[in-house]
Each structure stands twice: as structure tokens, then as C-alpha cells.
Amino acid sequence: QQQVALQRLVFQAGAMPTKVVCLTQVVTANELRDNDEYEDIVEDMRGEGGKYGPLASVVIPRPGPNGELGPGVGKVFLEYSDLDGASKARAGLNGRKFGGNQVSAVFYPENKFLQGDYDG
Amino acid sequence: DAGGGARKRRSRWADEEPKPVVQLPDFMKEFTGSMDLDPEVQALNIRLLEISRMLTSGLQLDDRPEGARSPSPEPIYDNMGIRINTREFRARERLTTERADIISQLIKRNPAFKPPPDYRPPKLQK
After folding, report:
1. What is the architecture, at CATH level 2, of domain A2-114?
2. pLDDT tens track for A50-83
3. Contacts of B33 in chain A (CB under 8 A)
């Protein structure tokens, strides 16, 4: 049980390496509402994220049409095809500045990501 | 709109700032808000630091006073002519093995862990 508790702790802290890196404090809901800005952000993420390894996907949750904030709005998910790329990205992007915001990068549980659960 | 030449704009990513040259000991990372909040990993890191310091300090590793020791056996030498059955030798070997063990555990827990340059992974048994 202790092991399980420990594992959960590690998972929450985003310390356990996974293929998915989650960037928090990156973008605001306002920026994501605008289609052009959204495209730009996706492009920037692909460009910078791709420097650390092959990207499988980039997911940036957007607010709903009526402005309602869904789970994960403000976060950016970079899914890598291997742990190596994800580890390098987490180390490399953590603390970097994106549009003036200091980004924090953590690993995100792969199973949650694959289920489309961005609320971690 | 791929046509018309992609519009020129700067990435929002700020340039990568040069990382500070001084690297904090692994157990300090907790305060830098990154990883290794795992208490077990922290304990391993602390012990690793301790052992590395002991091994490089040049201090005598076996500090039991002369009188508290049992009589020494006949000396045994390795093929370099260095005596191997001393307390010091055993103490050093014990610490070296523990150190290698800790490092391999840390690597298992965190593949991004950078082992010290002198670390050799354990040979797999044939």
C-alpha cells in the first residue's frame, strides 16, 4: 500500500517520466479564443517541442464556444513518441518563458492523456 | 493559408537562457520546484552524496581504535602486490558497491538521472 501511495504522490508531482509533457501557466483562455492566435501557439509549440524529440501530438484545450472554461484550458500537452524526447523536453522547457509567462513543465499520466482527461 | 509565403512572426518562446553552470545537488531539486519529491529518491541521493564524499575524502574509512580490533590475519596480496585483506580495503569496497547500487536504483526510478562520470553499469551475469 505504501508503494501505491508513493506512486500516487510521484504521479501527482509529475516527477514520474511519461511520454506526455504538460506545460502549465502557458496560455490564457483569451489567447485561445482567437483562431489565429491559437494557430500561432500550436505552431510555436510544435516548433519548440520538436527540438527535443519526435512529437506524436500536440493538444491545447480551448474554451468552449460560449467562453466556458473546460478542463485543462491554459495547459499545453506535448506527446512524444518516446520517453527520451519527453524527458529532454521536460527538463528543457521547464522555466522557459512563453509570451512572458514562465512555463512549468511536468510529466502527465499517459493513460489520462489518452482518455482525453486533461484535468490532472 | 500556406500561400503568399508564411507570415513572418516571432515565436513566443523566449530564447533559451543559458543554464546556470553550478548544478545543485540532486536532493536540492525539491526547492527548485522540479522533480524528486519522492522521499525515497531523496534519501538515496543524500546517501549517494555522503558515500561519494567519504570515498574521495582520503580519510581513513575504518575508524575503529586499534584495541577494538581482532588480530590481523596473514596478509593477502593481489597481483599488483597490493594487500587486499585490510579493513580499509573492505570498507572501501563495501562503500563502492553501495554507491553503485544506489546509482542504479536512481537510474531505474528516473531514466533522466545523470550518473557520475565514473559510474559503470553492473555487468549482467552470463
Report:
1. 2-Layer Sandwich (3.30)
2. 999 999 999 999 988 887 888 889 899 999 999 9
3. 104
